[in-house]
Amino acid sequence: MTTTKADDGYLQIGEAAERTSLTQRTLRYYEEKGLLNTPTRMDGGFRLYSSVDLERLERIKELKELLGFSLADIKEMLDAEEVRLQIRAEWRKDAAGAEKAAKIGVVREMTLKQLSLLDEKMAKMNTMREQLAERIAKYDAALLQWAEQPALALS
Amino acid sequence: MTTTKADDGYLQIGEAAERTSLTQRTLRYYEEKGLLNTPTRMDGGFRLYSSVDLERLERIKELKELLGFSLADIKEMLDAEEVRLQIRAEWRKDAAGAEKAAKIGVVREMTLKQLSLLDEKMAKMNTMREQLAERIAKYDAALLQWAEQPALALS
DNA sequence: CCGAACGTTGACGTTCGCGTTAACGTTGCT
DNA sequence: AGCAACGTTAACGCGAACGTCAACGTTCGG
Description:
The structure is a homodimer.
Chain A: E1 11-12, H1 13-20, H2 24-32, E2 40-41, E3 47-49, H3 51-66, H4 71-90, H5 97-148
Antiparallel strand pairs in A: 1-3, 2-3
Helix pairs in contact in A: 4-5
The structure holds a DNA duplex.
């Protein structure tokens, strides 16, 4: 008995779901929506998820929960990354330079767009943060004043 | 002719929708969901939105689009703020100190929770940002190398 | 006083992101 | 060969967050 079966670091849907804290339904749904390239299957049709797939799922979770993007948005971004990986793969396959440079340019642009989008969000979040911090400071001040001088009306 | 009608800085739903870039349906929906206190009405029943209402709507938009909160979440937060304003209003109405201090404590806690939530998100966004920046740097490097020495295969 | 523009309340429709169930096939162990 | 555990597709269901009529009232300028 070597590794018994297709136990090559590949997980089937149940395990994959547990590891990612997603449901099986969600995994199938993401696949259906094109967020995952249809994973490899066992002979019987059982899905097999690679570590790459799991990482991808984690990315999706982050983009969704963290940034509140729709699955459609996320698909776009991931597709962009797909191109990125394709480029890396082709990197030394031939040498038709200009074409690759163009592709890189495209991906660079998409990445830049994502980055500026992120920066925008972070900036706004920062002003929100400041407002919240300000408030807390006020509460603290008020509470302190009370604790030290119970019967103070105005000032 | 002074200001012709109820044109006191109050807008009716059409204008309010335009200014906030929301739809009339959305405004009514938010009201229905308790995110807006039912706005003042004209005699005929037409809704009138004050500048305060508009600010509130902007807040809602930010919380929704920026942080991806559900309307239910947002309602909670805004209700907390409502308490905040009530406190300010009651501030010098009587002097039953301890009770107010308790209320402030509650609001302070909610604010703290929001703040830590924000911080968490910002931290994660920051690591995402770094990853993106890293990639762009790589692209730039690759493109530069190409521009300067077109026929370079490996290194 | 009339009509166009604007508003009101239902009520049903739609999209997204899954949950749930049904009916059935696969795998693995004994 | 049998059977429990696990998987598959298909289909319907659901709550959120509105969109979209329909039928009717209001405002206001001429």
